[in-house]
Amino acid sequence: MKTGNIDRARHEDLLPSEMAAELRVMVVGCGAIGSWTTVLLAKMGVRQFMLCDPDVVEDVNVSVQAYGVLTIGDTKVEALKKTIVRDAECENEEVLTKVGKWNKSMVEDVDVCVASMDNLAGRQEVWEGMKDRARLFVDPRMGGQFLEIHAVERGDKSGIAEYKKAIYPVSETFTEEACSARAVAYTAAMGGAQVANVIRQWVMKETPRIKTFMFDIVEGRAWTQDPEMLRKLLRERGVKRV
After folding, report:
1. Lowest mean pLDDT among 11-20, 200-209, 222-231
2. Summary count for the chain: helices (H), strands (E)
3. What are residue 118's phi and psi, to 5 degrees?
4. What angle, rounded to 10 degrees, do the helices at 185-204 and 32-43 form?
5. Quick check: 19 and 203 in contact, CB under 8 A?
6. pLDDT of residue 47
7. CA-CA distance, 117 to 53, in Å (whole number)?
8. Cα 40–chain centre separation
């Protein structure tokens, strides 16, 4: 289906444009995975976004996140909005931006909430605020060359119980990786791609749908049913997911 200058016919059977256009997606944290998720969803035809982030684009962000050098100094939410309006033909009025840390005033009814901040305490706060307001809650995390993604549908009691195990206590610590090994663009982009796919599966009601996804890029192994194995590996390697 062609809208404006974009022909999305090549993925119309995977995600019909009309269904994508109806989605309301909130992205809390427009950094590594959050920025790539937004760009990819917009390319897939999602039009309605609420983007929430307190930060501005810095030079260190450009090598990993979906920002260019011309956006350095801009707020991340406005830079991201300009990108998807320009490159994916989203409408200005359909992309809402909130500059600042997550707070209760940002709570809204949405189809999907992606909590992609860089701290677990923040994820817990967004989960408490959005668990009854978002039909699908997605929590992506990355650390160097590791990905961990959780997807929880509203009302899924077993899924919610399992997800609560993944929200580690803030006191649980992981050894920091060296600053030069914390994040790389391909991990962030792969994380955004997998989040976009999780959302697409949910929209299309595909079964079985991914609820937990972990990927060790170093060894090229993925887990969707037994994530405890990778959690143990992460602890052994001292990897901190953000």
Report:
1. 222-231
2. 8, 10
3. -105, 25
4. 50
5. yes
6. 96
7. 8
8. 10
Q: Please confirm whether the linkage preceding 208 is cis (ω < 30° from 0).
A: yes
- Per residue in 171-193, is it b (16+ CB within 10 Å) or e — as a string? eeeeeebeeeebbbeebbbbbbe
Mean pLDDT of 37-62: 97
CB 25 within 8 A of CB 41: yes
The model's pLDDT over 54-85, given as tens digits with 9 standing for 90+, comes to 999 999 999 999 999 999 999 999 999 999 99
| Contact status, residue 30 vs residue 76, Cβ threshold 8 Å | yes
Q: Which two tokens stand for residue 148?
A: 């961990």
- Distance (Å, rounded) from C-alpha 52 to C-alpha 201? 24
132-154 tens-digit pLDDT = 999 999 999 998 888 989 999 99
Question: Domains, the chain, ranges and CATH?
Answer: 2-237 (3.40.50.720)
For residue 200, which of 43, 32, 34 has the smallest C-alpha distance? 43
Q: What CA–CA distance (Å, rounded) separates 179 from 64?
A: 13
**109: how many CB neighbours lie within 10 A of its CB?**
11
Question: And the tokens for 45?
Answer: 């035809």
Partners of 148 in the β-ladder: 141, 214
